[in-house]
Amino acid sequence: MSFTDALSKLGQVLPAVKKPEQKPSLNQKLLWSIVGVIVYLVMSSVPLYGIQSSALSNFLLEQVIFASTAGTLAQLGIGPIITAGLIMQILVGSKLINLNLSTEDDKAKFTEAQKGLAFLFILLESFLFGFALTRSTGFSNLTIPLAVAGQLVVATYFILLLDELIQKGWGLGSGVSLFILAGTMKIIFWYMFGIVNVQSQNLPVGFFPSLVTTLIDHGDILTLIVNTTKPFQPDLVGLVTTIGLIFLIIYLTSINVQIPITSQKLRGIRRTVPLNFLYVSSIPVIFVSVLGADIELFSSLTSYVSPSASTILNDIQTAFIFPPPTTTIPHSVYAVVLDPVGALIYAAVFIVLGVLFGIVWVEVSGLDPATQAQNLVDAGIEIPGMRSNPKMIEAVLAKYIYPLAFFSSIIVSVIAVVATMLGVYGTGVGILLAVSIAMQYYSLLAYERSIEMYPLLKRLIGE
Amino acid sequence: MPATKKKKENVPVMSMAGLIRYYEEEHEKFKIDPIYVIIGSIVLVSIVVLITKIIPP
């Protein structure tokens, strides 16, 4: 039995949410999605039993990409799910695991193996966390650490089921996306309106409450424009960049590259097929961030188990985080001025990995020229002046698809890096993800609404 | 219609956060109703909150 088969068998024996027998209405889907997100947010605000305060803090990148909250039932967030998915996709995309995702059996095996691997990550991370807790707090017996690990296993498995519930058709879109969106919005809201006072800097954590306090106390307003000293102080440059970035992403998402086509079914009428300019969307940024966040997570957890392994991971980790976690320099323009070499290394690593992951994603997700050419031929669509031969259409599409994948990977990676350096609220990665997820949800809602309003459309699109 | 049918089968169930998952075929042995996932999560939260109040660590 291969490793994939073993993971798939494990995925099959784990409890799963059943699929709806009838497609739920839009209102029912909205209700399930909202309930799922509320339950997730509640879990991310309930402290784990056995921890007085947050024994291990999460880095901002972990909070954003894993939608996790330190010291709560959502300590691991969607980390195990997203890490398992990333590993399986890369293994299949690079042909290290031989699965043919055009067959039903292999599709099912792929999904089950992802779930099995996610469960193994839940166990590993939960017990590592429990062990790290024993070392960091000096518990003499194992009762509390085991209780913490147990809570994490159960809570994270429920998070997996909540995601499955939404993804299997009870809700809209995917749970993982909704949890990331909700988590990022929570961070942005906190950065803007957080009223909790940070003792070390004697100001509220949110930009607007800080502004009011500074104006009343006749404090240093310049620090609020560009923060150069306080580690937990969002500034005006960050706020303006956040708003600008939202509009930039919306604009870039709306740009399409048009490919001329003719359709046999429509009596040879000439039209164009749009290819999104951001062809790989925010995927490269997600993958680089997941890798970075996992290195951060395992670096902090292994520091209690194997200091030497932790040192190696710590060195790698510095390339994924800017400014470095060991400094108290704020996440802002000031950090770039202070450490330009560190900023350059961070940017180079992020962009190079972003391009690599973008190209892998095109191959693994069926966005490659061969699959797209076959889809066009199956739908009776031709490119003017070309015979209806998949190989010829593939050659034409390849001229558009690979440059688009390459440049869109560079663009999204540069946006994420620059935004992070300008101190964007919720990090550049978070904003990029939040805006693209929100836009996809807008399209999904419009689609679901039109399907409900015009049932004939269902038959036309083969639902 | 065959072209439409084939196209539909080729479309992966894609998560918006970069995860590809397919749920057309199901081989899972233990299937639970979604309401029990919600109830289970609420029960877990309640137990943790109650124990924290009753037996502070």
Word description of this protein:
The complex is a heterodimer of chains A (463) and B (57). With 463 residues, chain A is mainly alpha-helical. Chain A has 2 domains: 193 residues, SecY subunit domain (Preprotein translocase SecY subunit), CATH 1.10.3370; 228 residues, Preprotein translocase SecY subunit, CATH 1.10.3370.10. In chain A, 65% of the residues lie in helices and 5% in strands. Chain A contains 18 helices and 6 strands. In chain A, the strands form 2 sheets. A 3-stranded antiparallel β-sheet of chain A has the order 5-4-6. In chain A, strands 2-3 form a two-stranded antiparallel sheet. In chain A, helix 1 crosses helix 5, helix 7 packs across helix 17 and helix 10 packs across helix 17. Chain A is globular and about 75 Å long. The two termini of chain A are 37 Å apart. Chain B starts with a helix and ends with a helix. Chain B is mostly helical and 57 residues long. The N terminus of chain B is likely disordered. Chain B has one domain. Strand 1 of chain A pairs parallel with strand 1 of chain B, so a sheet runs across the interface.
How many helices of chain B does DSSP assign? 2
Could you describe the largest sheet of chain B, including whether it forms a barrel? none
Largest sheet of chain A at a glance? 3 strands, antiparallel
Order of helices and strands of chain A: HEHHHHHHEEHHHEEHHHHHEHHH
As for the number of domains of chain A, it is 2
- Give start-end ranges of low-pLDDT stretches of chain A: none
Global outline of chain A: globular
Number of continuous helical runs of chain A:
18
Radius of gyration of chain A: 24 Å
Which outline of chain B best applies? elongated
How many individual β-strands of chain A? 6
Number of DSSP strand runs of chain B: 1
Average pLDDT score of chain B: 76
- Average pLDDT confidence of chain A is 84
Strand content of chain A: 5-15%
Name the helicity range of chain B.
40-55%
Whole-number count of domains of chain B: 1
